[in-house]
Amino acid sequence: MQHVNERIARLRSSMNLNKIDAIIIPSNDPHQSEYVSDNWKARAYFSGFNGSAGTLVIDSKLAALWTDSRYFLQFEEECRENEVELYKQSIPHAPEHVEWTISRMHSHSRLGIDFRLFSAEQVHALNLLTEPKKIEIVDASAVVDESWQNKPLPIFEPIIDYKTEFSGASRKQKIEIIHEMLHQNLSDYTLVSNLDDIAWLLNIRSNDADFTPLVTAYLIVGKESTILFLHENRVSEELLTEFNKNKIEVRGYDEIEKSIGKLSQVGIFEIDPSSLNYACFKSIQGKMNLNKSIVTDLKSIKNTTEIEHEKQAMLKDGVALTQFLMWFESYIPTHTISEYDLGKKLESFRMKQEYYQGESFAAIVGYKGNGAIIHYTAPENGSATISNDGILLIDSGAQYLNGTTDITRTFWLGGKPSNKIKASYTAVLKGFIDLQMLKFPVGTKGMQLDAFARQHLWAIGKDYGHGTGHGIGQYGMVHEPGQGFATTSATKRGSAPHLPNQFTTIEPGHYVEGEFGIRIENVVLSKLEENNFISFEALTLCPIETTLINLNELTTDQINWINAYHIKVKNTLFPLLSKEEKSWLKEKCQSI
Amino acid sequence: MQHVNERIARLRSSMNLNKIDAIIIPSNDPHQSEYVSDNWKARAYFSGFNGSAGTLVIDSKLAALWTDSRYFLQFEEECRENEVELYKQSIPHAPEHVEWTISRMHSHSRLGIDFRLFSAEQVHALNLLTEPKKIEIVDASAVVDESWQNKPLPIFEPIIDYKTEFSGASRKQKIEIIHEMLHQNLSDYTLVSNLDDIAWLLNIRSNDADFTPLVTAYLIVGKESTILFLHENRVSEELLTEFNKNKIEVRGYDEIEKSIGKLSQVGIFEIDPSSLNYACFKSIQGKMNLNKSIVTDLKSIKNTTEIEHEKQAMLKDGVALTQFLMWFESYIPTHTISEYDLGKKLESFRMKQEYYQGESFAAIVGYKGNGAIIHYTAPENGSATISNDGILLIDSGAQYLNGTTDITRTFWLGGKPSNKIKASYTAVLKGFIDLQMLKFPVGTKGMQLDAFARQHLWAIGKDYGHGTGHGIGQYGMVHEPGQGFATTSATKRGSAPHLPNQFTTIEPGHYVEGEFGIRIENVVLSKLEENNFISFEALTLCPIETTLINLNELTTDQINWINAYHIKVKNTLFPLLSKEEKSWLKEKCQSI
Fold it and tell me: Which of A289, A455, A531 is the closest to B461 by Cβ?
């Protein structure tokens, strides 16, 4: 394999030819996807760093990789033999590198970015910062592409037609809603670039990136026709016939900019500048209406079919978890098992369930101190050995054809838990319950609610360094953009309103480096109550560890909540369990 | 008085001459002040509407006044005989008029704004919205000024030297901190345009607008010198000598743009684009560093002298309130009094206190249904008559030479309170207490904390339509920009971090139109606790109405909080009270 330094040298010489003084290479693809396919991993190629988050900045003197504390160790391992230097972000995903990059640049110099990888809003923010120095922002997509030797070709699987039986609404019905909104907003076209929005709107699924059943595409919905931009040979004759019925035309993926250019000369485009990439944005020739994505909002509100299927998926997941936990409880007193193998074992139980498609993200199985590493993935070789002692965190999820799951439980495997662990576990649990019990007005933002899950940790001088929850799709993205719970409104998880019939996770935690990690997570459904208020219903069906609770610290309301939840878990799963499984679950769901 | 329609006609003809197709006239002054002096009230002049919030948009066809529900009634009264039409904002201060204005405009037309009245950030946001239609944004300051016949001249009182005895830090010390920050940020100058920042930094006060002891000015702090831009003849010889000692040069108020232009050719300016007006911003010729205002942040963190003086001011206010409430309680069983006169009576008690300078805002005395009008001001003639029956809300505050106060209490005057009122009062009180009891990490944002004051109202399907609190100055602005508690991060009250040694109000409420208003408000001091956490200490000293509490709905912690607060009120005020007053206060501070 070619050395990273040679790749950087080639990039620099291309930058030189193109009079680019500095270049910023982010980790995303043109669709702001969470999981990107290999042909968009330029940042990894030019830095040698394979972590999922990070931004590379290269100028004539320095190659700087900006990432956050989750990846410092991985960086040191992967980049010790190349010239890339680590720049530590204090906040994950914060654009701290931008001001730093600009501060290093001279007046009237040129900053290169791949226009496909930055949203229109990001470029506008860049403009504000580069204006004082009169720095020009130029498209570096060709510079990156031509310096990337043996760039992987995109690989695509067939596209499946996601039937109305699962989606609850036909693509025709969904497109009609878009037509109405276009009419209301006096727009002629809306341009959709988020893959989860396209998959939802057209009822299509595939498998283009890890863990997400999505299709790499762009979509233009106009009053008269719908145009889907796809890589070639992905649509079966059958699906094409369906598309034709609904006036959905298929064009080549690379034709998107040209098509935008033509159509925008005659009609008004409605776009979301926070998600649409700048290459597409720049192609718009005429008037635009800037709006938040219609589709993201529509998709976040699930219909009754979607809710019913998600509940069915939760049922399957609950059965698999029951079987797995029962097996584990009988196995661990007399055996040991590696974290990696335990993750695989869990998967083996889920695989037995109907409609199972795969994991919804890389399972986190963190024993003792490893549980404190928030985005830990147990390596295939050399992961920690679990025995019947101490604490274990398992955060995992599945894709079923009818729903997506995500659950975390923290278990006590044996020995006497310390007061410190019990105090933290109890505080996490109280927050987990309080947020699920909260009633609040429709439209309340995630940032307003997040701290209800933290307050009991705060009371004992503790906290956790991640958001409290995220939207989740129905056979879609496990981290579906939209509503959630976060400490900042810079992300939609903090700033988007909570509305009835959304799926959201609630997952507070607490982490002590080298000692333990605690996290408890349910998926909840938001339900409309009187006076336009919302309450949550837990969809996840799995007992909660009670060994670690300091009972005297729970309020009566909190105790009642746990007991009611356990009764629900038991009653809902019982019809699907064997006698032995029932007996195990009954024990786990006892009143406290 | 000339008819408003004639004023608009004159403005339109000037717009015509200057090829301006639409003009936006906001309510603020060039310093983003809360209370503006008469020479900046263009919006009132051209619309006839005198409410404190609103934006006027005029184009060739329409004159539209955008304001929120607090002012609909006042608009109808004041504008019924002119052509101005009311456009209802759904959210106070939201820039809903901007997109509306742009949607009415043609491509390549010209939008006029007074560059002095819009921040650099606001103009950048405008640019993003006008770009698709290629609308040009032009300065309309001359058009507004020349169409404004008999525009009032600014009137200024002398400037006082606010002694270190009160401020706790000399202007020299404060300027040195700015020098250090300039050094750190590689800047040569910082430009300060907020009047409260200037008053704090230079230890000066005056009386240029209602309720605020501020001085209309601009300030440039450079490494070598400090330049204060003032209207003429306001500085005494004595103060000028002090200024000279600290290398503070005084120039004319109108020289600011020219001076910025010159200095910025040789040095880097550090500015806050969210507060600096665009006229100043545009004058900068060279490099800038964009930052949040250093001074606003510094000012929000009070030193020990400021804290001690604020406590002294609270003591004076507590004595005045005790005397007022004792008088009122003996008076009302056998008399009636108008809301307006009761406000004056309260003022008369405060006036007797040392250092009293005036009210810190127009007192809100709202009896029964009037209490539900959030920004109610009892008119001098015809305000409601209060008798010994029902509910009364009083929100008032004072400026003392050593501190600023702001307090709300809700009283029950007689008769049997309804269950509805008691339920609401109890829920408001529980939120008021919970937020004051909360412990949270340094740096937590107001939007994360706000809902702790709402949760008990939410639990009974109720809410209130304002933020939960704001920063407060020390002989400064009663609504000091910076930290606070709000439902949105669009304002600093929602987005600024809470830090130790700040003064903030906590003031949840509940309002039922035509029936009653409930609000309870304390000023609190944020205190540093272990592990970098913050707790609040109540500074306000005044008993809380207990008649309206449903005791069985309070937790033990909440009851303990009230009893401890009342003991503190009693013990702190006792040394300053007469025997009769002590006995009255003791009764009010009894344990519940």
Answer: A531
ipTM over 0.85: yes
Q: What is the CATH number of domain B4-147?
A: 3.40.350.10
Q: Do A124 and B128 touch (CB under 8 A)?
A: yes
Mark out chain A residues that contact chain B at CB-CB < 8 A. Answer: 107, 124, 128-129, 132-133, 273, 287-290, 438-441, 444-445, 447-452, 454-455, 458-459, 461-463, 487-489, 494-495, 529-531, 533
**CA B302 to each of CA A115, A288, B297, B527: distance values in angstroms, whole numbers, following the listed order:** 46, 48, 10, 11
Residues A9-29 pLDDT 10s: 999 999 999 999 999 999 999
- Checking if the pLDDT of A466 tops 80, the result is yes
Min CA distance, A533 vs chain B (Å)?
7
How do residues A538-564 score in pLDDT, each as one tens digit?
999 999 999 999 999 999 999 999 999
Pairing of strands B110-113, B136-139: parallel
Q: Cα–Cα distance between A373 and A387 in angstroms, integer?
A: 19
User: Does domain B304-547 match CATH 3.90.230.10?
Assistant: yes
Rg (CA), chain B: 25
Domain ranges in chain B are 4-147, 160-291, 304-547
Tell me how close the Cα of B564 comes to any Cα of chain A, in angstroms. 19
- Which residues in chain A touch residue B444, judged by CB atoms under 8 angstroms apart? 451, 487
* Nearest chain A alpha carbon to B532: A461
Q: Lowest-confidence range among B81-95, B340-354, B405-419, B500-514?
A: B81-95
- Which residues, in sequence order, are bridge partners of residue B529? B533
Please indicate whether the domains covering B160-291 and B304-547 agree at the CATH topology level: no
In the 8-state DSSP scheme, what is residue A553? G
Task: Determine whether the interchain pair A128/B290 forms a contact, defined as Cβ–Cβ distance below 8 Å.
Answer: yes
> What is the pLDDT confidence band of residue A286, given thresholds at 50, 70 and 90?
confident
User: In angstroms, rounded to a whole number, what is the distance separating the alpha carbons of residues B398 and B388?
Assistant: 26
Q: What percent of chain B has pLDDT over 70?
A: 99
Q: Which helix (H) or strand (E) holds A4?
A: helix A4-17
Q: How far is B461 from chain A (nearest CA, A)?
A: 6
Give the CA distances from residue B205 to residues A420, A466, B40, in Å, rounded to whole numbers and listed in that order: 53, 44, 20
- Give the pLDDT confidence score for residue A74 in this predicted structure: 86
Residue A219: φ, ψ to 5°: -140, 130
Among left, alpha and beta (phi > 0; psi -120 to 50; other), residue A239 is alpha
Q: Which of B132, B438, B489 sits opposite A489 (nearest CB)?
A: B489
Classified by CATH at the fold level, domain A160-300 comes out as: Creatine Amidinohydrolase; Chain A, domain 1 (3.40.350)
pLDDT value, residue A564: 98
* Superfamily (CATH H level) for B160-291: Creatinase/prolidase N-terminal domain (3.40.350.10)
> What is the identity of the amino acid at B526?
S
Enumerate the residues of chain A whose CB falls inside 8 A of the CB of residue B530. 461
d(CA A440, CA B444): 21
What are A383-402's pLDDT values in tens digits?
A: 999 999 999 999 999 999 99
Reported confidence tier of residue A92, pLDDT bands at 50, 70, 90: low
Q: Give helix A120-130 / helix A96-104 axis angle, nearest 10°.
A: 40
3-state class (DSSP) for residue B583? helix
Give the position of tokens 């906040």. A91
User: For the range A546-549, what are the long-range contacts, defined as Cβ-Cβ under 8 Å and sequence gap of 24 or more?
Assistant: A546/A590, A546/A592, A547/A412, A547/A417, A548/A410, A548/A412, A548/A417, A548/A421, A548/A422, A548/A425, A548/A426, A549/A422, A549/A425, A549/A426, A549/A429, A549/A592
Residue numbers in B near A129 (CB within 8 A): 290
How many Å apart are CA A200 and CA A474, to the nearest integer?
9
Sign of CA dihedral A564, A567, A569, A575: negative
Domain topology for A304-588:
Creatine Amidinohydrolase (3.90.230)
